[in-house]
Amino acid sequence: ISLYIHNMADFISSGGQNQGANGDVPPPFALPPAMMRLCASFLPAKDAIDFSSACRGIKSNLGVAVVRHPPPPSTRMAKTWKWDGGYDDGDEGKPWLVVRPMFRDRTHSVAFACTWRDQGWGNRKGKLYVVEGRRASAGDTSESESSDQFFLGGKVVADSPGYAEHQWTSLALEFVPKRGKDYFVFYKVGGGGGHELLVKDVRLRQAIYDDTDGIFAPTYHALVERNLLGGGGGDRSSSNFAALM
Fold first, then answer.
1. Are 39 and 4 in contact (CB under 8 A)?
2. Closest Cα to residue 118, out of 188, 165, 186?
3. What is the pLDDT of residue 231?
4. Residues 6+ apart with CB under 8 A from 178
């Protein structure tokens, strides 16, 4: 696989002109579709999309595309979410959203994206996390017996690389979902008093393996735009991306 990845890197960097330096290893466009998908699984979404777009042969066999899900109704109503950090519990992670990605058999990766900032002055303590948990734990805010009490016993699979800035900045947390798991967005404001965390422009992007004709993602977007998936404004997707509180 390392040789395939090396050839793939050469192929992408050359714009599809270099067929790979290792003569004993077939160039990426000659790989079976299953091997293409395996190689793409080691790449972040942006690189997987670039690889998929390198040439027509790879695109028809791999076809990585991005599906953009509408936000849950609660985030459309609350255009900006704002939390105050308690003096004693502000450093604890608290659950906010549950994410249940659609099209799991087609999924390459999922990205939770938003715009965020803190109170605008003083120390920076705000963070966001994506936490993997069991399906039975959805909405369960009881204290866990796990040593990781801040995240209800879940496993952090993505977190903000730093703390929220004093001004609005963009954030994207990318992760690879597993079968039988739900994913939760947690926030931490910061303790000690005076800390705030504000979040807006909540979005969920999902990189998927499209069909050979490349019509799966465009069809999904067209159905969402026309409110044909059930519920006004695509609300049916809120069962896959919804607020806990």
1. yes
2. 165
3. 44
4. 132
